[in-house]
Design goal:
Number of helices: 6
Structural class: alpha/beta
Order of helices and strands: EEEHEHEHHEEEEEEEHEEH
Oligomer: single chain
Largest sheet: 6 strands, mixed
Strand order of the largest sheet: 1-2-3-4-5-6
Radius of gyration: 16 Å
Bound molecules: zinc ion
CATH topology: Metallo-beta-lactamase, Chain A
Number of strands: 14
Amino acid sequence: MAILKFEIGPLSTNCYLFVDEKTNEAVVIDPAFETEKLIENIKKVNLKYILLTHAHADHIMAVSLIKELTFAKIVAHKNEAKRLLGDESNLYNALGCYDKPFTAQEVDIFVDDGDKIKFGTKTLSVLHTPGHTDGSLCFVGDGIIFSGDTVFAGSYGRVDFESGSYSNMLDSFHKLFSLEGDYVIYPGHQGSTTLKDERNFNPLSRYV
Ligand SMILES: [Zn+2]
């Protein structure tokens, strides 16, 4: 199993390329920004899907280029569709930190709680985890979770943007903490962590 991490863009967003080494099929999670290194690596694999944990601008600026290069399908929750189409709530204008224009895209495949994403010999299960946005998703694989801006190491994503909700965030943490066993968590910003550590040390754990 190969998970390549690219920390990119003005807000140091984590983009992950998850490659099934048996078949060379892959998915990219949150293609935050066009960098040569990311594009080079994407060209080496058979990219099947572009998975979006949510559609804030700092997670999606390279979606259009990667779609054009690979024809991979864009996968997101239906509540994120308007942001990918350029709605103000994607924070592109609010962040004001990009030197390229935003290119609107349509979601190809809407997913929701319990849906499976299969590529090569791998399967990722979809968890709907609203809180940071109403369409935030976590992608859960064998011992791994791509958590977007829901869980960070020792913290959690902001809940004060459009469609954010603290009570939804608590419910989403409850859902994640209810998974059995331990997982490595790959968040949308900063370093990785484990579900066990977050059950013990995350500031939300006492309320969940
Ligand atoms: Zn975000």
